[in-house]
Amino acid sequence: MFKKLLVVVIVVASLAGLIGAAAAFFTDTKVGGDNVFTSGTVILNTSPITGTITLLNMAPGDEFTVPVTVTNAGSLPLRYAVTSVATDDGKALMGQLDLAIKFHATSAAGCDEAGFPLFGESIRANGDLGSLVGLNVIGDPAEGDDTGDRTLAASDLEVLCLNIKLPDATGNAFQAATTTATFTFAAEQTANND
User: Fold this and answer.
1) Does the structure show a pLDDT above 60 at 2?
2) Beta bridge partners of 9
């Protein structure tokens, strides 16, 4: 009996060794090349950068148009909005001056007074220049796709023609009045941003 038991133990031990050996297998590992992930950029440039308009000694009926080139210098499509905040000397000239904006696809040369009414899409017609608390003059700087926002593809540009007019009917209360308006351009990505 002892011999039979010993034979059974040896056979079981041999089978266990074979089963363990059967679990071994060949392996190989490869390391792939470097995978590169780069985030895009949203960069909005304007030219000129500051002080686009200085109008002195305006008389009722005077009208001036100046170009501002807006460029998407980033790698992602973007949309932008423009606000105007004005200061006032107490005579409320900022509410008297009319601001109209048109755009030209590529050329600042088209932003002269003679050509202004004839080309481009009107963005804002007969709007005040600005207000003490800020005024949306193009689109809305709130996040997301807002009515009036302008879009630019990467490396694209457009020219805004800013037209400022002191209306013909401006009265004596606006003599020697001064206002200063600051335009703020706010841009955001369009991808995944409804």
Assistant:
1) no
2) none
d(CA 9, CA 22): 20
Is 72 buried (19+), middle (13-18) or exposed (0-12) by CB count in 10 A? buried
CB neighbourhood size of 158 (10 A): 18
Between CA 69 and CA 81, with CA 75 as vertex, the angle to 5 degrees is: 45
Ramachandran assignment for 156, one of left (phi > 0), alpha (psi -120 to 50 degrees), beta (any other): beta
DSSP conformation class of 108: G
Q: Which residues pair with 160 in a beta bridge?
A: 68, 103
**DSSP alpha helix (H) spans, 71-120:** 93-96
Residues 153-176: tens digit of each pLDDT: 999 998 888 888 899 999 999 999
CB-CB contact of 93 with 66 (8 Å): no
Cβ atoms 177, 168 nearer than 8 A: no
pTM of the model: 0.76
CB-CB contact of 119 with 102 (8 Å) = yes
Say whether 88 sits in a helix, a strand or coil: strand
